[in-house]
Structure formats: structure tokens, C-alpha cells
Amino acid sequence: MQVASAAAALGAAAGAAAGVAVDRALTEPSGAGDARTLRPNTGTWHTVAAAVDLPEGAVRQFDVGSVIGFVTRTSGQLLAVSGFCSHLHCRLSLDSAKRELLCPCHRTAFTVGGEVVRFQLAVPPPSLPHIVVREVDGDIQVLAP
User: Fold this and answer.
1) CB 73 within 8 A of CB 55
2) Are 10 and 104 a contacting pair, CB within 8 Å?
């Protein structure tokens, strides 16, 4: 039983590490402060929501296999951010009521636009990387490998 638990934990850790590796490999400076944008060298557009399912102010989580994140529509503009904390790359969860992305590792919170709201660390972690997003023919799509 302990071997199975250890194997499951190892598998989960390997999966998280792979997600972090993809996240880091795709991140490049965007030139705007410390904001970064994930721009794959080769990628395809992945539909993550129907436009009608993302009204003004809504936030949706998505997972396209190689990239996990959140997409929102604010002031008519689409924005997508990484679903991993920029500190230790723990997976974020959405607090819909507060419109915040929460990191369970060190009680860090980000706005749905990726800016740091609060943290317990000695220094604030960087803002979340942005993900290229578009709306085409009624679909919300992100660019990912």
C-alpha cells in the first residue's frame, strides 16, 4: 500500500514538474515591466470556451494539456494568464467571489489579470505570465504547443 502511495505521489510530482517546465520554456519577457507572455515557437490555437460562455467580468479555467490557465473578459478585452504561481509553480485555484487566483503553497493571491494582491513571502513574486488569446468565430482560443 505504501509503495502504491509513493508511486502516486511521484507521478503527481512528475506531472507538476512537466507543467512547470513547459511554463518556463514558453515564457519570454514582453518588455512591459516584469509581465511576461507565453509565446510558443510552434503552437496551435486551442478553443477554451465559447464566447457566449465568457460574458463581461467572467473568468474560466482551462487546461489544454501543455498549458493551464485562466481567461477573462474585462472592459471588452480578453486576457489569459498562467494557472501556476510564479513563485514555486503551485497550481492556482479561482476564488470567484473575490475574482482572485489563489496559491495554496504560501497564501499568495493574484488578480485575474495576474497582478499580485497579497503574499507571505519576504519579497513579492512576479506577476503571472500572460497567454496569447483571441476570439474567432464565436470561440475563445489560446496559443499553446
Assistant:
1) yes
2) no
Residues 6+ apart with CB under 8 A from 107: 118, 119, 120
Write out the three cell numbers for 44.
Answer: 496551435
Extract the C-alpha cell encoding 99. Answer: 475574482
Q: What is the tens place of the pLDDT at every residue in 68-103?
A: 999 999 999 999 999 999 998 999 999 999 999 999
Query: Cell numbers of 16, please?
Result: 507538476
For the chain, percent of residues with pLDDT exceeding 70: 76
| DSSP-assigned states of every residue in 96-139 | TTTTEEEETTTTEEEETTS-EEE--SSSPPPPPPEE-EEEETTE
Q: Tell me: pLDDT of 33 over 90.
A: no
